[in-house]
Amino acid sequence: MRGVKPDSDRIRIDKWLWAARFFKTRGLATEAVQGGRVHLNDQRIKPSRDVRVGDTVTITRPGAPPMVVSVAGISGRRGPAPEARELYEETTESAAAREEHSMMRKAAPEPPGAGLGSRPTKRDRRRFEDARRRSR
Hints:
This protein is 38% helix and 17% strand. It is α+β, with helices and mostly antiparallel strands. β2 (38-40) and β3 form a beta hairpin. 18% of the residues are buried.
């Protein structure tokens, strides 16, 4: 394994977040840690802080409840998703809160004008033109 000794029992938090697939790039993981969106054992940390098996990591994302996970494994390699899921265990409270949030979002009505944020496509413009011609 490159970057981590085989018998190593610790790794930088930004590298672990990337290997566990919480962030797409290591740079995004570093930005999240620096921005205070990742806490280790309920303390704000720097990206160079080492994480060990048994530590608790709290990841906060905008518009979602915080995800609280316990570190179950160490890897400096970003492998497939099933392998990455073995690096952590989500707490039952965190999983329940995320599930409840998901159910609330599905049950909530769509806000008015939600689909109007982008420009019309070529297909949309053709439909508008056809409707305008027919109304004349």
